[in-house]
Structures are given as structure tokens and as C-alpha cells.
Design brief:
The protein is α/β, with parallel strands linked by helices. It contains 13 helices and 13 strands.
Length: 372
């Protein structure tokens, strides 16, 4: 068996397992709450008037939950997201909506700086943190906070599904989430790994967060969401992944923007889980299977490669509605993933919101400013 053949078998096993894991989704939980249930403070850090911001934020204003507070936070008075937040406050006068404009910084992570300021205004025992590009169904708050009724639950998070605006780079970004990231997470959960915690949706009791050191404990970490989950588990609490309808917008205007975002994700993974990162290339099915087809004359190898490519298509169709253009983009999508993985092997800098930052490494994604 050649090295290429062994790699092709490995990628076939992965894509088969990933496809099966997407078929084993747990039933969606029913919403459990009553009018005397704990009130919620919803923290929404904002930055800029991204496409569909109004629609995404509005979905949080139409929740079927009896008592919740919405805190929209920005760090600059002239941030255009303020106008969207003000529009929603006017549209829903009966909701407890506050717009927090606070320029104070505490660490290098800009999102966490915003969250620290929002936390100071949160009044309720349950906290829900969600990114600005997330859209949810009306039962979202009820479902994601229901597991917090159990004392052993530390944090509740959700998987998310991507939807793309028009454009090649946005389509490729959607496939990054739907075809690669989400199936990989589902497979890791099926294998019993519990390290997933995503900023798209986090629910936590306020007293637990404060006991862990608050948001200040992750003010210099790139993957602040990952560390919130890790701190909870270190305190003997569990992470619950809730099957809930959560979608994220993907709006990428250029190849460079997409490249910086995905390399940042890869380098973060390399810093946090270097062993998993080392074997991540087997998840990039198409280039490895095509390499086997072109480099080996064996009929058995061709069958393995062809089956892997077929399962890759099945995985895509399980995660997305059928679009011929998206199917045609699968080889490019997987090849770009492999290229990004190779680049992420070297170097420790990332681009975030136009600023170059350095990851310290050594098992940590702690950020620092690059030396001039």
C-alpha cells in the first residue's frame, strides 16, 4: 500500500464517518419554560452594519420567552450598527432593549472588550451571548436556556448552519461551515469529545461566569468561546450542545477576506489542539482522492477513491440544498482547505478586523501585538 493509498483510505473513512454523524442528529428538544422561570440577559456585541444585520437582530426581538433583556453593544459612538439597534428599539418599545456605547478596552480581543462592558449592564441570572451575524427561531431562548436548569450544566452551545449572500467567496465560505466545519464537529461529538463551544450561541448562568473570572478571564484569547467552555469543564461542569435552529450569514467580498478568516481559524485550531490539527488534512477529501486516481493504476485504489468522492457528494447534499454551482465548487473548496492547512502549519500571526495579531502558541491561543 502506497502512502497516497493510505491517505485515500483515511479520507474515505473520515468522509463516511462524517456523513453518518450528520444522519444521527439528536431530536430537537422541546421548549421548557414558564412565566416564573429565570429571566435572561441577551448580550449582542456589534461591530459595523454588516449585511442582513437588521434581520438577524430582529429575530432576537421576537422570542417566545416571558422576560428577557437585550443589550446591544458597540465600542465606538459612530458605529453604523447603532442605527440598526435604535431602529429595533423603536420598533419594539415593550422590550427591554438597551444600547451600550462604551469605548473602554481591557485586553486584545475586541469582542471580549465589548462583552465586558455589556456584562456590567446585565441584570438577570441567565446570560445568552450570540454573534451579530446569527439568526434564530422564536423558541431559541427557551431551548438554549432549558439545560441550565440542571446544576451540573456549565454552558450550553449550538451548532450552526451557514447561508451565503451572493458571490463566489461567500458560497465558498458557506461550504467551509456546512461541508467541513459542522460535520467535523458532529463527528467529534459522536466520538465523545466535548471541547466544542461556539460564540454563535452560548448560554451560561451569570453566577457560573462570575465564578470563572468573568469575560476578563478570556480577554486576550483568540477563541474566547472555546475557553469559556474549557473553564466550565475545568470547574467540573458539563457542556451541552443543543439541537437548535441557528444560522449564520456568510458575506465575504474577496478572496483575501476569505483567506484571512479561514487561516485564522486554522491557526487557532493548531494552537489549541495541535494533535488534531496535525491529522486534519484527511478531512479534505477531494484532492486526496483525485491524487489517488491519477497516481495509482490499481483497480482497488480507484474504487476507494471513487467511493470517497461519492461520499463527499453525499455529505454535501446532506448539509445543503442542491445547487449545481455549489456541487461544482466542491473540488475548489477542498483544495483551498488543504492549502490553508499547509499555510497554517507555519507562522503564528492572524488578521482580525484588519489588524495583525500574533498567537503565542505552545498550547494557547493567547494574543499579543506583533513586535514592530
Amino acid at each position: 500500500m502506497t502512502l497516497v493509498g493510505a491517505l485515500a483510505i483515511a479520507t474515505f473513512v473520515y468522509v463516511l464517518a462524517a456523513t453518518l454523524s450528520t444522519a444521527l442528529r439528536r431530536p430537537r428538544p422541546a421548549a421548557h419554560f414558564d412565566e416564573t422561570g429565570p429571566a435572561i440577559s441577551l448580550l449582542k456585541p456589534l461591530h459595523g452594519a454588516e449585511p442582513n444585520l437588521y434581520r438577524n437582530l430582529r429575530s432576537f426581538c421576537t422570542q417566545r420567552y416571558p422576560d428577557y433583556q437585550i443589550l446591544f453593544g458597540v465600542q465606538h459612538p459612530d458605529d453604523p450598527a447603532v442605527q440598526v439597534a435604535e431602529r429595533l428599539r423603536d420598533e419594539f418599545p415593550l422590550l427591554d432593549i438597551q444600547i451600550v456605547v462604551d469605548v473602554r478596552h481591557y485586553g486584545i480581543n475586541p469582542k471580549v472588550n465589548n462583552l465586558i462592558n455589556l456584562r456590567q449592564r446585565a441584570r438577570h441570572p441567565y446570560l445568552v451571548i450570540s454573534d451579530s451575524d446569527i439568526e434564530v427561531s422564536p423558541d431559541y431562548l427557551a431551548n438554549v436556556t432549558a439545560p441550565l436548569q440542571h446544576a451540573e450544566t456549565g454552558v450550553v452551545t449550538c451548532l450552526y448552519h451557514a447561508k451565503a449572500n451572493n458571490g463566489l467567496w461567500s458560497r465558498l465560505g458557506r461550504l467551509f461551515v456546512n461541508d467541513w466545519f459542522a460535520p467535523s464537529v458532529r463527528l467529534s461529538l459522536a466520538l465523545g469529545l466535548q471541547e466544542y463551544c461556539a460564540g454563535a450561541s452560548i448560554a451560561i448562568r451569570a453566577e457560573v461566569l462570575d465564578r470563572l473570572g468573568g469575560f476578563a478571564a478570556v480577554k486576550d484569547q483568540l477563541a474566547d468561546d472555546f475557553w469559556i467552555g474549557k473553564l466550565c469543564r475545568s470547574a467540573g461542569l458539563t457542556t451541552v450542545v443543543c439541537e437548535q435552529s441557528v444560522t449564520t450569514d456568510v458575506h465575504l467580498g474577496s478572496f483575501v477576506e476569505m483567506w484571512h478568516q479561514e487561516v485564522r481559524w486554522m491557526r487557532t485550531t493548531r494552537s489549541l489542539t495541535p494533535i488534531c490539527f496535525s491529522f486534519m488534512f484527511v478531512t479534505m477529501t477531494t484532492p486526496l482522492a483525485l491524487l489517488l486516481l491519477f497516481m495509482t493504476p490499481s483497480l482497488m485504489c480507484h474504487v476507494i477513491a471513487a467511493t470517497a468522492l461519492f461520499m463527499r457528494l453525499v455529505l454535501h447534499l446532506r448539509q445543503n440544498s442542491f445547487r449545481p454551482l455549489d456541487v461544482a465548487l466542491i473540488p475548489l473548496r477542498d483544495s483551498l482547505l488543504l492549502a490553508e492547512w499547509c499555510v497554517a502549519l507555519l507562522g503564528g500571526s492572524v488578521i482580525w478586523r484588519g489588524q495583525k495579531l500574533r498567537i503565542e502558541g505552545g498550547g494557547s491561543d493567547k494574543l499579543s501585538l506583533p513586535t514592530p
